[in-house]
Amino acid sequence: MNFIFGSFLWLLPLAAVPIIIHLLQRQRYVQVKFAATDFLRKAIQRVRRRVLLQDLLLLLLRTLAVVLVVLALARPSANAQLLDSSRAPQLEIVIIDASMSMQQFVGDRNAFSAARDIAKNIFSGLDDSRDRAALIVASQRAQSLSQGTSRRALTALTANSLACGDAKANWLDAVQIAEEVIGELALENSEVRLTIISDFQDNEWFSGGEAATAVTLFSDSKVVIDYQTVGAGQTANVAVHNSTVTPQVVVKGGEIAFSCEVRNYTSRPQQRLLQLSIDGKVVAEQELEIKARSSDNFEHIFNLNEVGSRKVEVAIAADGLHADDQQSVGLEVVAEWTTILCSNNSDFGNADVSSNFLSYLNLGDQAPLRPIVLGPHQLSSSALNDAQLLILSDLGSFPNGKIKLIESFVAAGGGLLVVVGPQSTTGALQPLMLQLGLKQFEIAGAQQRDALLTINDAEHPALKLFSDPQWQALLTEVPHRIFQQLDIEGDHRLVLSFSATDSDYESAALIQFNHNKGKVAVSAAAPYARWNRMPEVPGGTMALIYDLLFSLVPQPELPSKLKVSERLDLANTAAITNPAGKSLPYSSQLTLNKLGTYTIDGHSVGVHALDSESDLRSINVSDLPSYSGAQATAVATTRKQSNSPLAATLLYALLACLVCESLLSFSIDKRRTA
What does the alpha-carbon distance between residue 574 and residue 611 come to, in Å, rounded to a whole number? Predict the structure, then answer.
């Protein structure tokens, strides 16, 4: 048997104290003979052997109790690391992975709980008087929870605040903290061990990956690296990814499309029931069959008539990793879009461009777009503050004093459509276009040639109807006999172009570009009967105009979704609630570090898990960086519990010995005094 604190063995001679006391008690009695005691002497001789045996047994128990006390203080152990009392002081640094993947269940508990138990065993085996310990948590923001004695590290491990996060582990920061701890705590002759407890996901720990690269910081130092595996890719996981609503803001009654992806990370086919909810009410269900290592897509089209911020949530049945089994997105439903139609004309009965636009938009009180007709001089900040869209319809003149007003409207998020028609002039529109960011804008004159519209960007939202070949003719086969030629330079998106039927001539018909938070579209395909037949095909041109204006409407200031750990810039926010329903103090920059739905001034923002954290496949830790020579080694085996059961056994034996001694003493005293 070996002892951690062998110096206590010098107390073993104290075991002679009960013997000495026993011998001294025997010498206290003086023999005096008188005749009346002869019959007592004969009685004592009859029970002498029994009394002697009882005294010897009592002496043995008392001596054994002293020996057991000394041995327990010396702490016998079979752990070679703790046997030699002359060994060098040890610095034990433990890094626990607190990323989302550590929430995976291994049996009846998650991997993070298993990691805490391993760390407890490590710290419990240290000598608190001379060894040093440090506990580091590798989460979204790596931090050191304890530096100093093993007792402090154990206290940090049991704290209620220690929990697994929802984001990715920052391994570089964690390793750099460990490097700083070594510089602060390690003595000249200290043995330094770094233990990393993780599920060792393949997408982080592969050769050249972020985590494996971070560990190479110790390639030139004498640090023993011990990799402790929990989880090990044993958990079956199916996850919800890429939940999206289109559009993010919609007029009541408008069509909304929801889509998501359900991915199977297991090596076997999986079946899941998917439920789609709006504000907690299930609106759609679908049973999905997902092939092994594959994914399936879910789509649902719906309409909402209730105005306000809505929460759309999709969920599947919980499995080995609960955190990625649901996602939510925010959606804004508005009553209408207020649209200002700005024109030089005061008479809207002459079938010009502005009259046609007004007839397209003025569809009654229940229409999603509400047009307000104003002249250029009537534009004001108050009028634009109440509007979401502005149409400059075939302007032949425009006051320069209104340019900055419109630029501010667009920069703040408003939508602007500039319609170039027969009356439009370069002098009226060029200053505004240059102010909005184009490098060059010029109306080069009217082209008199037969042309058709060509779709240059089929993915543009204004062309969603015409992505179906059945409906393309409504737009692309409308003859244009005359059109304005635009000479434009700048960072813009070409959506439609005029293509002459008699040559390879092309000219821009519809472009779009962004200006700060707002969007601007310029269209030379104006609905004008003398130049084209667009007014005769209301089905096609109506869809184009409406969808084009809807693509320009202001987007919500808050996004519908973000990835966990992303930051959100806020301004003048009154109330913030996290997914647990807890109110948060206002901050101009809010870090979304919890999965679920944040509520910000009544608006819902879904926080989604990182896709990489759902793939629980792990690497073989024997493939992790290990350094040759005396510098460092990598150990992949499970660490044996440092606590030896021998010391506990001795304490139980001591307790039993004391109980037996007390019972025997009581029995002897009772018998002899009877």
Answer: 32
pLDDT band at 635 (very low <50, low <70, confident <90, very high): very low
Query: Does residue 142 sit in helix, strand or coil?
Result: coil
63-80 pLDDT tens trace: 888 787 777 777 676 555
Q: What is the mean pLDDT of the chain?
A: 86
* pLDDT bracket for residue 625 (50, 70, 90): low
Do 229 and 636 form a contact (C-beta atoms < 8 A)? yes
Give the tokens for residue 392: 């400059």
* DSSP character at residue 107: T
Q: How far apart are CA 278 and CA 50, in angstroms?
A: 88
Mean pLDDT of 341-354: 85
Torsion of CA 431, 435, 440, 446, to 10 degrees: -40
Per-residue burial over 364-376, b = 16 or more CB atoms within 10 Å of its CB, e = otherwise: eeeebbbbebbeb
Is 287 in a helix, a strand, or coil?
strand
Backbone angles phi, psi at 465, to 5 degrees: -65, -40
Interatomic CA distance for residues 621 and 163, integer angstroms: 24
How far apart are the C-alpha atoms of 238 and 255, rounded to whole Å?
30
Contact (CB, 8 A) for 331 and 256: yes
Please list the residues that pair with 308 across neighbouring strands: 333
Region of 565 (left: φ > 0; alpha: ψ -120 to 50; beta: rest) is: left
- Percent of the chain clearing pLDDT 70 (strictly above): 89
Pairing of strands 415-419, 389-393: parallel
Query: Phi/psi of residue 307, each to 5°?
Result: -80, 140
pLDDT tens for 222-267 read 888 999 999 766 678 999 999 999 989 999 888 899 999 999 999 9
Strand 295-303, strand 255-264: pairing: antiparallel
| Cα-Cα-Cα-Cα dihedral sign, residues 278, 279, 281, 282 | positive
Q: Give the pLDDT score at 44.
A: 59
Angle between helices 17-27 and 38-74 (to 10 degrees): 160
Q: Mind listing the pLDDT tens digit for each residue in 173-227? A: 999 999 999 988 887 777 899 999 999 999 899 888 889 889 888 877 788 899 9
Nearest to 363 by CA among 495, 156, 209, 549: 549
Residues 6+ apart with CB under 8 A from 582: none
Rounded alpha-carbon distances, angstroms, from residue 88 to 125, 201, 587: 15, 35, 49
Degrees, nearest 5: CA angle 346-350-355: 70
Q: How far is CA 279 from CA 34, 311, 314, 604, 653, in A?
A: 106, 5, 11, 10, 64
The predicted pLDDT at position 293 comes to 93
Q: What average pLDDT does range 139-153 have in this prediction?
A: 92
Place of tokens 């919800």: 240
What is the pLDDT, as a whole number, of residue 631? Answer: 36
